[in-house]
Specification:
About 30% of the residues lie in helices and about 10% in strands. It contains 13 helices and 13 strands. Helix 10 packs parallel to helix 12. It is globular and about 65 Å long. The N terminus is likely disordered.
């Protein structure tokens, strides 16, 4: 319920206003989520209110989550298409999001089928580019601009960050990892141009400072770095004064929304500051910057940071690699000590297949958490997920065959009303670049062709 008397006596709050006087020069920046106070007073209670509220929000966002090494296909896609499909074993954690996602089968990465060897390198670097990559283990790499970077080039000037490139594994950036192919191909899906990958950030502390702090001090300036860490230590500590004056301009609903938002920031800070469970720090010693040890912990803190970045409209485009191709990650937290990549080469061994399915299921659990977090963020009458497109996919297809066919593709969200979820559709064996064209359209970036596209995917809307 909107407090009408309150709204009649205030001026609308600018969408991009930053809290004033934050940190007294510390350089900490906290933006504002969408608030009712951004609505012009003249529209309160009118039929134009909903239309105006939508105009204050980004029309759409796009996030690509890339899952390496392929999936066990028999456990992935449901047996039947339509709206009443039975959720497959690997996708069961997404049952609660059935109405918010669109399963798409039949999409291939044709460029990854060309040339011999290098299936992992080609799966990653052909995925968003749709081009044939050069066979080389040296630095004379040749790929193409990826879909996310084309969008960033067109609309990136509307946000603080044109795009965010994130991941959970650094991977090697030199030498060869896949026979005949440079490691950099296997470790990146986002490419600024033919020879320049957009290197991903893996460390959540660095990402946090990038989103909320000023420029990080040089590694060679210990005193300045320590001061920067102190300044960025607690966002809430440096925003209390500004919040005090801001709250006087806000109604009950908005004060609650701001409180929930900053509580999320505080929670992330707390998780970043927590030392590893086996680290006994002497009094006065600050914990070192670290990457969380478990996949779940690492994924969720990076996911939460992305949600905050979207909520503040810091960016509208993001890629998130859940691992590099040929990942040697193990999953001790679910009692799987073997490397993921090795297990996908199961040669029909039922015990290895079962472990691959457990990892697939575990990965989907984390994706479901991501969608939970996005649905919790209210934007007018909708949610952040309603106003976004969040895709989980891969470029290898079946993990054992590396066939680059029928690649795992889950598109969640409604894309600001441009996608009709709640279904499982099969397309007639199309290059996945056709889907990229369709998503680019929905981001307001219409181009004739991208990579090896030969059309657009029909059926995203009913």
């Amino acid at each position: 319920m909107i407090d009408l008397p309150y709204f009649r006596r205030r001026k609308p709050l600018p969408r991009r206003e930053f809290l004033k006087g934050i940190g007294k020069g510390a350089g900490v920046l906290v933006g504002l989520p969408y608030l009712e106070a951004m609505m012009p007073t003249s529209l309160i209670g009118s039929t134009e209110a909903t239309v105006k509220a939508k105009s204050l929000l980004p029309s759409n966002r796009l996030l690509i989550l890339y899952y390496p090494n392929g999936v066990h296909m028999d456990n992935w896609y449901p047996a039947t298409t339509g709206t009443d499909y039975e959720m497959s074993p690997s996708l069961l954690p997404l049952e609660r999001h059935r109405d918010d996602m669109l399963l798409i089968g039949g999409l291939d990465v044709p460029m990854a089928k060309l040339d011999r060897n290098g299936d992992h390198a080609k799966a990653a670097s052909c995925y968003l580019t749709g081009v044939r990559i050069r066979i080389t283990e040296s630095d004379d790499i040749d790929s193409g601009i990826s879909m996310d970077q084309r969008i960033a080039n067109a609309i990136g000037d509307q946000t603080r960050f044109a795009t965010l490139e994130l991941g959970l594994d650094y991977g090697r950036l030199e030498g060869g990892c896949d026979p005949g192919y440079a490691c950099i191909y296997s470790n990146n899906i986002s490419w600024r141009n033919e020879t320049t990958p957009a290197i991903k950030e893996v460390n959540p502390r660095i990402l946090f400072d990038r989103l909320f702090g000023s420029a990080v001090a040089s590694d060679h300036d210990a005193e300045a770095r320590a001061q920067q860490e102190m300044y960025n230590r607690s966002i809430l500590d440096y925003t209390r004064e500004s919040l005090g004056s801001l709250n006087k301009q806000l109604g009950v609903n908005d004060r609650q929304r701001v409180d929930e938002y900053l509580t999320s920031v505080r929670d992330i800070e707390r998780r970043l500051d927590a030392p590893p469970p086996d680290m006994d720090l002497p009094p006065g010693l600050v914990r070192p910057t670290r990457v969380p040890e478990s996949f779940k912990e690492h994924f969720r803190i990076m996911a939460d940071l992305q949600v905050l970045a979207l909520q503040q409209d810091m960016t509208r485009v993001s890629t998130f690699m859940l691992g590099v191709e040929q990942s040697r990650r193990t999953y001790a937290e679910i009692d799987i000590p073997e490397e993921h990549h090795g297990l996908t080469h199961h040669a029909g061994n039922p015990e290895k297949i079962e472990k691959v399915c457990q990892i697939d299921h575990y990965m989907v659990e984390q994706f479901a958490y991501f969608l939970d977090r996005m649905k919790e963020v209210k934007e007018g009458e909708n949610t952040l997920l309603d106003n976004s497109m969040v895709l989980l996919g891969n470029g290898n297809g079946d993990g054992a065959r590396h066939d680059h066919e029928n690649c795992a593709t889950i598109l969640a969200g409604r894309g600001g009303g441009t996608v009709d979820p709640g279904r499982y559709i099969q397309v007639d064996r199309q290059p996945i670049a056709n889907l990229w064209l369709s998503l680019m359209d929905r981001m307001g970036v219409e181009v004739e062709r991208h990579g090896d596209s030969n059309g657009r995917v029909a059926g995203l809307t009913v």
